[in-house]
């Protein structure tokens, strides 16, 4: 890929000689191996450069004093991470196979589009519809009456329960389960009676689901994952959840049943959400927080405990245990003062 091509990709007018300068890889600042491109989004990264790269892409507001411009091509951009993503996509394209394995099991009344890949030991149940250019890797199970949209990729050992709808341009990573029973029981006084879950899961377009995540189907109606939402590995999405568009759920988030999350919200790692909680749009919940009540739109919430030096924490904890007595003593002192 030439520097001129990269410049055009980033909406920068290239110089004439840039079409003769080739880039073969993207490197980290600490491991420059030319001819490569390096992307700088923080000024501290400039100090880490092991060598001058062939192409240096730097955020607009980062000064580059001391950089020998004659020995590198310098591009200034507003968002280096976005530029990096665009270049990586072009420089390292993903190539998926095409064809249906003779070891796959395709049931009756299955519709498969053009240029699809169905790997070894995939089982596709009756009445499934698969769009064009869909890739289903070995060991997957696709339940009956499910629908999978164009260009979606399903990696090995994914289980899709019956009646699931997955949109276009989605990515489902290995080991994920979509559409399993919700965790719903009613106690009759002696034992827990299972409540049948007869709803479905609907995943809209451009959603990515990480490895070993579980998405439960609804008791009634549907569990919904909105367009553009990105779900990390090891996330638990409970029954009847309604997750908005372009939401981020980081690893080990756990959502109880009937949770609603507004568009563009972010739940950091290990956030737990109680059932029937509503989280507004553009909310951020910091790591390890527990959410037990509704959260207002556009705010940042957190009740996590950042790590501190161990001996200091022991002192803090010993004081926490004494807090009720300290409060009583404080109240007595205040009464005497009055």
Major sheet, described briefly?
A: 11 strands, parallel
Count all strands and give the number. Answer: 36
Report helical residue fraction.
Answer: 10-25%
Number of helices: 5
Label the overall shape: flat
CATH class of the largest domain: Mainly Beta
Give a structural overview.
The protein has 338 residues and is of the alpha/beta class. It has 3 domains: 3-91; 99-301, UDP N-Acetylglucosamine Acyltransferase, domain 1; 308-338. The protein contains 5 helices and 36 strands. The strands form 5 sheets. Strands 5-8-11-14-17-22-25-28-31-34-36 form an 11-stranded parallel beta sheet, with no helix packed on it. It has a 10-stranded parallel beta sheet with strand order 6-9-12-15-18-23-26-29-32-35, with no helix packed on it. Strand 19 and strand 20 form a beta hairpin. It is flat. The model has no long low-confidence stretch (mean pLDDT 96).
How would you summarize this macromolecular structure in one to three sentences?
Helices cover 15% and strands 27% of the residues.
Blueprint of the fold:
Layout: H1 3-9, E1 25-26, E2 36-40, H2 43-47, E3 55-59, E4 73-77, H3 80-91, E5 99-100, E6 105-106, E7 111-112, E8 117-118, E9 123-124, E10 129-130, E11 135-136, E12 141-142, E13 147-148, E14 153-154, E15 159-160, E16 165-166, E17 171-172, E18 177-180, E19 185-187, E20 192-194, E21 200-203, E22 208-209, E23 214-216, E24 222-225, E25 230-231, E26 236-237, E27 242-243, E28 248-249, E29 254-255, E30 260-261, E31 266-267, E32 272-273, E33 278-279, E34 284-285, E35 290-291, E36 300-301, H4 310-321, H5 323-337
Parallel strand pairs: 1-2, 2-3, 3-4, 5-8, 6-9, 7-10, 8-11, 9-12, 10-13, 11-14, 12-15, 13-16, 14-17, 15-18, 16-21, 17-22, 18-23, 21-24, 22-25, 23-26, 24-27, 25-28, 26-29, 27-30, 28-31, 29-32, 30-33, 31-34, 32-35, 34-36
Antiparallel strand pairs: 19-20
């Amino acid at each position: 890929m030439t520097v001129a091509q990269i410049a055009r990709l980033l909406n920068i007018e290239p110089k004439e000689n840039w079409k003769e300068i080739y880039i073969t890889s993207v490197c980290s600042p600490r491991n420059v191996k030319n001819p490569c491109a390096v992307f700088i989004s923080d000024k501290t990264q400039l100090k880490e450069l092991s060598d001058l790269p062939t192409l240096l892409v730097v955020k607009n507001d980062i000064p580059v004093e001391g950089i020998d411009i004659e020995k590198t091509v310098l591009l200034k951009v507003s968002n280096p991470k976005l530029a990096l993503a665009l270049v990586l996509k072009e420089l390292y394209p993903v190539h998926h196979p095409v064809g249906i394995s003779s070891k796959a099991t395709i049931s009756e009344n299955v519709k498969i589009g053009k240029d699809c890949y169905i790997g070894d030991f995939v089982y596709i149940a009756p009445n499934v519809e698969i769009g064009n250019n869909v890739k289903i890797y070995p060991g997957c199970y696709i339940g009956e009456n499910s629908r999978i949209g164009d260009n979606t990729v399903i990696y090995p050992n994914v289980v899709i329960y019956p009646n699931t709808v997955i949109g276009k341009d989605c990515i489902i990573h290995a080991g994920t389960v979509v559409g399993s029973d919700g965790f719903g029981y009613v106690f009759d006084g002696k034992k827990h009676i299972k409540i049948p879950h007869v709803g479905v899961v609907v995943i809209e377009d451009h959603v990515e689901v990480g490895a070993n995540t579980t998405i439960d189907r609804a008791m009634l109606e549907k569990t919904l994952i909105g367009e553009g939402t990105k779900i990390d590995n090891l996330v638990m999405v409970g029954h009847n959840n309604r997750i908005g568009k372009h939401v981020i759920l980081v690893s080990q988030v756990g959502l109880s049943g009937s949770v609603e999350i507004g568009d563009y919200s972010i739940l950091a790692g290990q956030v737990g959400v109680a059932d029937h909680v509503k989280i507004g749009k553009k909310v951020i919940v910091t790591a390890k927080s527990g959410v037990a009540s509704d959260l207002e739109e556009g705010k940042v919430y957190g009740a996590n405990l950042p790590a501190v030096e161990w001996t200091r924490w022991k002192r803090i904890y010993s004081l926490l245990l004494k807090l009720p007595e300290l409060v009583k003593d404080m109240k007595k002192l205040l009464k005497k003062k009055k």
